[in-house]
Amino acid sequence: MSGRIASLKLGLIGDNIGASRSPRLHRLAGEQAGLDVTYDRLVPQERGEDFGTIVACARAAGYRGLNITYPYKEQVMALVAVDDPVVAAMGAVNTVLFEADGPRGFNTDFSGFIAAHGAVRGAAMPGPTLVIGTGGVGRAIAFALARIGAVDLRLADRDSAKAAKLAEDLAARFPGLALSTGADAEAMAHGADGVVNCTPVGMVGYPGTPLAADAMKGAVWAFDAVYTPADTQFLCDAARLGLVTISGWELFFFQGLHAWRLFSGRDADPRALRAALQTEADLP
User: Which is the most buried residue in 96, 207, 245, 256, by most CB within 10 A?
Assistant: First the structure.
């Protein structure tokens, strides 16, 4: 035995990802598995390259795969083959594997949200749920909510065409699902059990909240896809009102676990990985 450690080259493409914890998660998972993992932040604006060029260059450079984040989760669909019909229907990918026959796309936001919701709320049904933001992560979360039993989804987005397209795609996949769309999230929140933020509002660089606290009154639970920071104003407002909250950190953690399995072919130890991430929360 030479003692040489196998290596795995990974990366993340997105805008405003300087605070992302994904590099730390995958490097720690690599340490646990005895793999030498490199994980690069690839920001198109900083590199002076367009998204498609970066994907092609990563493949040529020997990357095993990429995570894809805002705002490229829908754009990447044109560059990958997707085997899962649910992922194909949702039209968004956050994980790319470079295989011998070409890049393949997966969505661990979808599976990660289902795991995060189950970890916090158990088998509780979502109830009528407001989803604010119908971009890449919003599409994945809406499909996940439908998968776990939501029967009424309200899709709020200032871009009415995006919301309408998501509603159309959900209706085709989940007949009988009650769907409504609109631009006024506060009005659509009335009577909702769940309120969900799938916009970048609240993350580092995008301060604020997508929904006034008063509009959450009467709701039961809240989820924020933002995890940098984890204690967004949106979730803090929800907690003060007594809602059960699901942090974007939980989505980050579970989607990362699922992406790691795809990248490496190995299962990470979730307890050990969670402990290591929380212990090293202040490291770059």
Answer: 96
* pLDDT < 70: residue spans in the chain: 1-5, 280-284
Q: Report, as residue numbers or ranges, the catalytic residues.
A: 73
Structure tokens, 197: 């933020």
- Domain 110-249: CATH superfamily is NAD(P)-binding Rossmann-like Domain (3.40.50.720)
**254, 148, 242, 243: which is closest to 194 by C-alpha?**
243
- Give the separation between CA 216 and CA 211, rounded to whole angstroms: 8
Q: Are 56 and 80 in contact (CB under 8 A)?
A: no
The answer as to CATH 3.40.50.10860 being correct for domain 7-107+252-279 is: yes
Look-up: residue for tokens 């083959």?
81
CB 131 within 8 A of CB 155: yes
Q: How many other CB atoms are there within 10 angstroms of residue 42's CB atom?
A: 21
